[in-house]
Amino acid sequence: MPKKSICLKVPSNLGEAAIATAGKIGLFNKALQIQKVEADHLCIPLTHEPDERDRALLRKILSEFELTTHTFPEKKKLGQTLPEILANYLPSDLLSTLPRALDIVGDIAILELPPVLEKHKAAVGEAIMKTHQNVRVVLAKAGAISGTYRLRDFDFIAGEHRTFSLYKEYGCSYHVDVAKAYFSPRLGREHQRVAEMVQKGETVVDLFAGVGPFAVLIAKKVPDVMVYAIDINADAIKLLKKNTRLNRVENRVFPSAGDAREVVKENLSGKADRVIMNLPETAAEFVDVACKAVKPRGGVVHFYGFVKSSETLEALKFLFRTKVEKSGRTVLEFQHAKTVRATAPHEYQAVLDAQIL
After folding, report:
1. Once rounded to an integer, what is the mean pLDDT over residues 83-110?
2. 224: phi > 0 → left, psi -120 to 50 → alpha, else beta; which?
3. What is the CATH number of domain 184-356?
4. For the domain with range 3-72, which CATH number is right: 3.30.70.2580, 3.90.180.10, 3.40.50.2300, 3.40.605.10?
5. Is the dihedral of CA 42, 45, 51, 57 positive or negative?
6. Which residues pair with 43 in a beta bridge?
7. What pLDDT does 248 receive?
8. Domain residue limits, the chain
9. Contact 125, 158 (CB under 8 A)
């Protein structure tokens, strides 16, 4: 509800100084929104009328100001935090163990639940749904990522009993089932970064495509590309096919279910301008496959691997270069080398963008 309040009216170029000064002397009303008036002035809401000492300080800092009244909209009140909601339910010593980060996949929240919170998991799940209004399912990780398909088990702790959702990222929509196909919302910026590098008319081979976050985005953003998207997980390929139709790129993304080594050998040798290798656990074992897929004149390989905090990216570069040379090709340069995200204590996922010949 709008409120009328005494305020400090200043030229826009004095706004920062006026806000800082009003805040320092306890005058700034943080519950109301600052308003722009007369094109080049700001009205800064105050909690009360300044006394003579306050006015003297304002005159010392501000070369021009006026005390007047104005009607201000109230700032939207922030929702309660997870510890605030659970403060009356959990013992105080457990509040510090609440998860500090969540993965949000569509309307599914995924968290690491400390063992000490196991008997309180239903309350934690309900509280998460209150702090995230769009969340309809809360899952707790129930094991590490494992197996050929890079899957993990989950415990349902609140909301609807399902693992599928619709996820949106950089203008694309994806059908995702976190129990059937690997997916990480933490790689969104990396999907976008690689897509921005792809040139019109390129042929891209995505060796471990999953549900298509690289392939679909590239096909949607870059004209006249052809993306061959491979995954050994048949469920991932089913979702990928749905996602190509959902995003209207089925004429530019060509999914294949099977082992990347066999698919490249049979159909994609020497076709790629660019190869994506987002399988950090075992990507090193497939460098020869990437080299086989790249055109004879050369191309770019986006290689993802793990590095320990005690290691440097140079060690990953050495590993990749050695594998490329064993395949009979050469690394001309590393265009980019960077850690992408933390994956475990003292461990990071890293990417190398390598131009090979």
Report:
1. 88
2. left
3. 3.40.50.150
4. 3.30.70.2580
5. negative
6. 9, 35
7. 96
8. 3-72, 82-162, 184-356
9. yes
For 160, how many CA atoms within 13 A lie in the half-sphere containing its CB?
10
The class level of CATH for 82-162 reads alpha beta
Q: Using alpha carbons only, how large is the chain's radius of gyration in Å?
A: 27
For 243, the enclosing helix (H) or strand (E) is helix 234-246
Residue 31: name the closest of 57, 69, 66, 1 by CA. Answer: 1
pTM above 0.85, yes or no: no
**Residue in 288, 277, 287 with CA at minimum distance from that of residue 214:** 277
- The C-alpha angle with vertex 44 and arms to 42 and 50, in degrees rounded to 5, equals 130
Residue that is written with structure tokens 């929509």 in the block: 173
* The predicted structure's pLDDT at residue 78: 61
Q: Is the pLDDT of residue 341 over 80?
A: yes
**Nearest by Cα to 108 from 68, 79, 69, 137:** 137
CA angle 294, 300, 304 (to 5 degrees): 105
The mean of the pLDDT values for the chain is 92
State yes or no: pLDDT of 119 exceeds 80.
yes
| Partner residues linked to 174 by β-bridges | 167
Measured between alpha carbons, how far is 74 from 30 in angstroms, rounded to an integer? 9
Q: List all residues 6 or more positions away from 66 whose beta carbon is below 8 Å from its beta carbon.
A: 8, 9, 10
Helices (H), 62-169: 82-86, 92-95, 121-131
Which of the four pLDDT bands, split at 50, 70 and 90, describes residue 149?
confident
pLDDT class of 148 with cuts at 50, 70, 90: confident
